[in-house]
Amino acid sequence: MPDPTPATDPYEPRLHVVLYQPEIPYNTGSVGRTCVALGAKLWLVRPLGFQVDHHNLRRAGLDYWQHLAWEVVDDWRALTERLPFERFWCFTKFAKRNYTDARFQEGDVLLFGRESQGLPEEIRTAAGDRAVSFPTRSEVRSLNLSNCVAIAGYEALRQWESAG
Q: What's the total number of domains in the chain?
């Protein structure tokens, strides 16, 4: 059965959150819930490690999934045809720039990689100074994907509210 994709967005997003080839339905469900809270649109780039009608995805998103603006695209090329790459902020542990140094604007795209492998090197390299990271101690390999989306999304919101 193909993944269902909504016909229309329930709102005009202030922010776009992209999960590049996500693998864990609970993380994606939690990210969807955060996107509803932020007024962000969720984009999922195939291949996915689950079906978007998977019960764990819906369960993690609880009853918020019906309010989520979301879309599944077949691959990276299809995504970049829809969203301008110059608006992308790539979140990766390999970036030298801290996420708090980024200046987010409404309409920006927050891009996160696979839980097991992150973003491909060619995407990280193409991002240049728009590649950012979260400070972590060396004992930690990475943060949970859904936590990263929440941190980044609410930092963007904080910046917008501070700017008036």
A: 1
